[in-house]
Amino acid sequence: MALLMSAVHNRCVFSASVASSRHVTVTPSLNLPLFTPTASDLFYFKYSGRRPILVIVKVNAEKMDKRLRQPLMHLSSSRISRLKELEDEIINLPNAPSMNEAKHALQTQLPSTFDPSAPDEISKKVLLSLMVIVAHTNLMIGDPQELQNIARLWSPIYAKLAPLAEGYILPLYERPKTREGADFYEKLVFVCCRILVFLVQINDHYSAAQQRVVLKMEPTFVALMAKVTCNLAYIRDPIFELFWMRVMELLDEIPRQSLLDTFAYYLVPKTCSSIFREELAKSNQDFDGCVVRSAMRLACHAFTIPLRLISPDLSLPDEIMSVLVEVISRVPTVIRNTVPADYDITVFGDILIFGCRCIQACFTRSFDWAAKALDCGLLPVLVVLDEYINTMKVSLMLKMRVMVPLSETFHETLNCLAPFLILRPVLNRVLRHSAPLLLPNAALHKASLVPAIRKLNQDSWTVKCQMYQFDDNDLRSCSNHLCPLKSRQDTPKRVKFKRCTACLVATYCSKKCQKAHWKSGHQHECKTLGPDAEARRSRMASFQDEQFIKYLVHRDILTRKEYLLREVALQHPSDTIVAEYDYRKWPMVFTTDHFNRNSTKVCDCIWEDCPLEKRLRLIRRQAVPRRHVIVHIRLPSHDTTCDLRWLYLEDIQTE
Questions:
Q1: What is the pLDDT of residues 80-135, one digit of tens each?
Q2: What is the rounded CA–CA span in Å between residue 395 and residue 301?
Q3: Which has the closest alpha carbon to 266: 244, 288, 245?
Q4: For strand 576-582 and strand 628-634, is the pairing parallel, antiparallel, or unpaired?
Q5: How far is CA 335 from CA 275, 293, 347, 477, 544, in A?
Q6: Tens of pLDDT along 23-51?
């Protein structure tokens, strides 16, 4: 059956009636659509005299795909090219003002109100002047005269740029719909980006001291650009990646509280999560690596904010862990379906590194995020990624610059799970998800990360055996203080504890104990723990885990009893020994410190009125000299920093 086709040759469109023959005579046609080759067919022309012959060649689909692939950075390059086009457009405008006219226009008074969809003429005039100034300024040559010109014009420029950015960019919830508004918005973004580049170039081509001098002239500029960047990310403008790469270099110039307020106002954790989801929904060709990298870096800053400074707007969205794991697992697929250059590999290496750091930052928020990461398949994903980067054929320089740090980051992420093994939700998941990766016939058993997973599995079984001993010999895990099993000698070995579904803190060995504890006062305690059960689950380890950790500490104190007795015998009667168990490290680190009457700081939080310090003063008054030590337990999650449950007295004189 004949097939009608068209193709481009020497700026003409040809049509061909193709039967079973390979060589087809082609006649010119001007009305047929442009032919798009399939992945399995390759088309080219040869001439028979003056007649063009269309030759159809069957080729391997994978080889053809490689011909059609694009470099990974084509999307980011297009944004940079557009900024360059705007710059050239301003330079070549026949009616553009001169530099002197542009400087004089900076004295124009801007209106008090702005309409992003219909910019006024005064704003257009001022913006055009700013564009002329930045388009004719070049700091790349390292000329001190250019730096002096920028320093002299910096305050007048910022005096106009700040109200324009606050009036035409910051109020936006989406890009302007009108043609006039969109054009003004694009040019204003160009000006902001170029000025950011100037400030970074001062450090690159002159010195950091001169950069600080210019920044101190207008100290709120970097904070304003951080707001612009977050707003661009909020409205999903991909050009925010060009902003954030430069704002990151100037973050030290932003007051901490100002940055926190900006992150909270623009809902940065949720915004980054939305950006990741949108990019994951795209094809491999349209996957924007630069946008994902900048969103990862932005998220990394937002996720590492200390928990005590976090407002509800900075809380992590529930789906963030599954999204992060999916993003890093997508990287090999994107690279396989493109033609990556060295810079592309560097960008995707940054995505993996900052993605793993975001995951680690979630761990420090709460142990619950570690459990979620394991449920999302973090362990097999890390193994696959580690094997993939170790089998990639890259230059030695790229291997040292990207691949080696990547492998180290994967090991760091795996090591971050180890301190959480003392918590049942994490321990049981590690055992469940690591076992298939260690089977002799596992497809990935040769990956370099597998020995580290084997070590994690062995450590997990060590803790699990200790947990079995605790469960068999000590039923204090039941929150009911009158639990009948506690007084029995023939206690059944395996008791399946359940948590209170309202507070997710209290644990019980049976429904009878739950009812008894509810009547004896838990109904009042349960209400005081707060309305959000899911948030409490993130903040608090269960009573069962709490008792197990204290059980481990008690066993360790018994092994160090002689050492502690010598320490308390040498101390002054007014002094107290604090035995610190740091479970933030693996294996746990034990230290002692002598606290006299002038020592009051045991917590490293930033609270001036820390509740843990109050408790320290209280139990020091209760401590019997040379008999008691104060036990301070540090858990891996930051949410336990000031938790009163982890500071208590231990009697070292009793057997």
A1: 888 778 777 776 777 778 888 888 888 889 998 999 999 999 999 999 999 888 88
A2: 31
A3: 244
A4: parallel
A5: 20, 15, 11, 50, 46
A6: 333 333 333 333 333 333 333 334 344 44
Tokens of 451: 């020995």
DSSP secondary structure string for all residues of 247-311: HGGGGGGS-HHHHHHHHHHTTHHHHHHHHHHHHHTS-TTT--HHHHHHHHHHHHHHHTS-GGG--
Six-digit token pair at 158?
Answer: 């910022």
The answer to whether residues 405 and 310 belong to one domain is yes
Count, in order, helices (H) and strands (E) of the chain.
26, 12
What single letter denotes the amino acid at residue 421?
L
Residue found under tokens 């170029």: 194
Domain co-membership, 86 together with 211: yes
Q: Which domain holds residue 552?
A: 545-651
Q: Cβ atoms within 10 A of the Cβ of 410, count?
A: 24
- 51 DSSP β-pair partners: 48
Are both 322 and 234 inside the same structural domain?
no
Here the tokens at position 370 are 């570690």
Token pair in block for residue 588 = 């746990």
Answer yes or no: is 597 within a domain.
yes
pLDDT tens-digit series, residues 154-169: 999 999 999 999 999 9
Count of residues for the chain?
655
**Token pair recorded at residue 408:** 């180290």
**CB atoms closer than 10 angstroms to residue 491:** 16
Strands 3-9 and 27-28: unpaired
- Three-state secondary-structure class, residue 22: coil
Beta sheet of 647-651, edge-to-edge order: 589-595, 576-582, 628-634, 647-651
CA-CA distance, 330 to 350, in Å (whole number)? 14
Largest CA distance in the chain: 111
Enter the pTM of the model: 0.78
67 by Cβ neighbours in 10 Å (0-12 / 13-18 / 19+) ranks as exposed
Token pair of 553 as six digits: 């500490």
For tokens 């450090």, name the residue: 203
Would you say residue 464 lies in a domain? no
- Sheet containing strand 23-25, strands side by side: 23-25, 51-58, 41-48
- Beta strand 507-508 pairing with 589-595: unpaired
